[in-house]
Amino acid sequence: MDYGRNIPNEVIFSILRILKRSNPGDLYYESYLTHLAKRGNSFLDIYHFMWEWVIENHPKRILEIGVRTGISLCQLLSAYIYYEMIEKIYLCDIFNDGYCTPGLVQMNLRYLNIPDSVLGKIKWYIGDSKETIPEIRAREPDLLFDYILVDGSHDPTDARMDLELVYPIVSPGGVILFDDIGPDGMNMLPVWLEFKQSCQDEFTWFENQDGKGLGVAIKK
Q1: CA 14, CA 187: separation in Å to the nearest integer?
Q2: pLDDT category, 98, cuts 50, 70, 90?
Q3: What is the mean pLDDT of the chain?
Q4: Domain residues of the chain, as ranges?
Q5: What residue ranges in 39-121 does DSSP mark as E strands?
Q6: How far, in Å, CA of 191 to CA of 178, rounded?
Q7: How far apart are CA 176 and CA 121, in angstroms?
Q8: Read out DSSP for 77-112?
Q9: 9-219 has which CATH code?
Q10: 97 or 153: whose pLDDT is higher?
Q11: Mean pLDDT of 114-135
Q12: Which of 5, 37, 100, 152 would disulfide-bridge 65, Cβ 3.0–4.6 Å?
């Protein structure tokens, strides 16, 4: 399995370039140009995976830990043609840096012409994921997500806790996506491998480090 390889870099950078005009203070576009220059055609990122996953699986229930300016969500939602199948989008972030806000995320989504009907399905959980994820589970104990992105705190203890918290709420056939496992990211590979070891047989696994590094776990 090598999800994302069917998505050309041009698709990813088109979204980044558009959002750069919407939000010129965000340096992700320049950062990704640096990754592309280093890796060339082998460059692979979570955004490539998102596009291919949506095209093939059309996730209905989406959870993100770590939203920042919403670029990951923008990439994810841009891969849909029809949005009627989306049921829930839950976004968890502390939004405490004085720059990133839910309003900024919504601005970027609207700049990409993501419909208001989709924005209306977003539920914001502002605070520490160690508190907000248990809150979600307590409120909706039967809720399972088809797509979960874990990209919040990059402290190893926090990141491992995030993985443990979402592990019980991924649906069969759903995916947990973990960012920054590589040396060009935040070197989170040990955290990912420890998590993988703890539930090896329950998921199909995939790792790639041709960029910032991504780990993928698909629930059997």
Answers
A1: 27
A2: confident
A3: 97
A4: 9-219
A5: 61-65, 88-93
A6: 10
A7: 21
A8: HHT-S--TT--EEEEEE---SSS--HHHHHHHHHHT
A9: 3.40.50.150
A10: 153
A11: 98
A12: 152
